[in-house]
Predict the 3D structure of the following.
Amino acid sequence: MEHRAPPQKSLRFGIGLRREHFDDIADRLDEVDFLEFLPENFLRFGGRPSRVLREVAARVDVTSHGVSLSLGGPDPLNKTYLTELRTLLDELDTPWFSDHLSYSSAFGVEYHDLLPLPFTAEAVDHVVSRIQFAQDFIGRPLLVENPSYYMSYPDSELTEAEFVNEVVSRADCNLLLDVNNVYVNAQNHGYDARAFIAAMPADRVLQYHMAGHIQGDGFLVDTHSMPVRDEVMDLYRYTLETVGPAWTLLEWDHAIPSLDGMIAELSRIRETAASAHLAPGTLEVAA
Amino acid sequence: MIGSNPRLDDAFGAVHAVLRGDQVPQTAAAQVGLDPVRMAFYADAVYSHVREVLEKDFCALAAVLGPSRFEPLVREYFEIRPFDAYELNENAAAFRDLLARCASAGRHGVTDFHVELAEVEWQEFTVYVSPEVIPEPSQVQAPTLNPTLVILQLDHGANDFLDEWRDGAQGDVLPPIPDQPNPTTLFVLRHPETENVLFVAADEALLFALKAAHDGLTVSAAAEEAALPIQTVQSIYQSAADWGVVVLPEEKNP
Ligand SMILES: [Fe+2]
C-alpha cells in the first residue's frame, strides 16, 4: 500500500495538545510549530475536545501519538481502534502517526501502561509484522518510539539499540527517538546514552521527544512531570549533532504547567537546538 | 498469535499474572527471570491508573467516601472489571453498577446518595464528551432541544450537594449530605455557547419548554396548545435557551 510520503527531516518545535490548555491554545499557535495529540483522548469524543483539535489542526501541523496500539502485544491488533484512528488521521491529514515499541494490552486487558518486550529475534519477528500491518492499514508512516522501561528480560539476545535497528529496518518504519527515555534507560540499565544515540538509524528518525524525569527508589522514572533536565538537554544537543534535525516535542503529562510555562520550556529546547553544531546541509528550519 | 511465540508467551503470561494481581511478583518473576521489585513497580502503576481514573471521574464521590472507604471499592472494581477499553474513562462506566450493588447489600458504607452522586458525576463526563452536535440558531426552524441533554431523576439531593461542594472550591470541609428525600428532575447538558457542562433542577417552566421543544412546537403553537399568552411562552423558551436546554431559531434569539 502507498503511504503518504514523509516530510523532509526538519527542525521544528511543538508541544502536546492537552485539555488544560483548551481555552488558550488557539491564541498561542504562533509560538509552536506543531502540536501532538493522543488519539485516545479524542477519537470518541465530541464537544470541546473535538472542536479544539479540529480548530488547531486547521492552522498548524498536528501529529498523532498513540498509547494503545500495543504493537508488541499478544492479542490481535484492535481493528476498531485502527479504523477509528485512520478516519481521524485522514480527516486531519497528519504527516505520520506514532506509538511505542512495547505493549499495552494482553489477554483482553488494557493496562494503560507501556510494558517492555524482550530484545529477542522472536520479539523482532512478532512486532515487525504488526508494525507493517498497522502502517499499511493507516496508510501513513508509522513512527515507533523507544519507550522507557524498568525491567529487562534475561533471555534478551540483542542490545536495545540492535533491537530498535532490527525492528525499524525490517518493518520499514520510522523512529520517534525519545531522548529523555534514552537517558533514563541508559542510567537504569547501565549503558552509554551517546553510544546508543550514535547507533540509531539517523535517516529514519523523524521526531524527538523531550521530557522530564524524577529520581525514583533506586532508579530514574520517566514521569513527564518536570522540566527537561540539563543532562537530557546536553544529550539532545549531541543527538541533533549526531542524528540530525527532526521535529522535537516537549512531552508533559502530569502536573502540567500553564501554556506560558510550556512555551518557556519549549524556548529552552529551541535554545539548546540553536547551540548545536549541525552538519552543513542538514538544517531545514521551519518558516 | 498465541502459540507461535513460546518464550514471548511465557513473558506475557507471567507479567499479566502480576499486573492482574493473580500472582505475587516473586513467583512470576522466578518463572521468567525478571526482577520481582520492578514487576511490582509495573503492577502498582497499572493499579494506579484504575484508581486515578475513578478518582477523576467520581471526584466528589471519592471526597465524600474518603480514602478508607474509596480504596476498597477501587480494589474490588480492579478485580471484577478488568479494563478492556482503550479510552480510559470508558472503563470507569461500570463503577456505578458496583456502587449500586454495594448500596443494596450495605457494603463498604455505600448508600443510595453515593450511587446518585456517582451517576451525576458520570453523566457530567458523558455530556462533556458527547458526540452530539448542538445546532446553531441559524440551523433550526423551531425551538430545538439541546441534543446533549441528559435527564436524571434524583431522590437524594446529589445536585445540591455538588453545587455546595463546588461553591466551596471543593475543599476538605464537605457540605452536609442531605438527609431528606428530595425528588428532582435534573437536566445535565453542555451549554451551546460556552461548551461548559452544567446541571439545572427542572422547574415547571423548563419541563414545559422541554416538552414543547421535543414536540417541535413554535412559540405560537406551544402557546395555543397550552392556552397561554404568547409572551409567557416566549419568556419560558428564552429562559430555557439561556440555560442551554433549547436552541431558539435566530430571529427569536437576537
Ligand atoms: Fe515519549
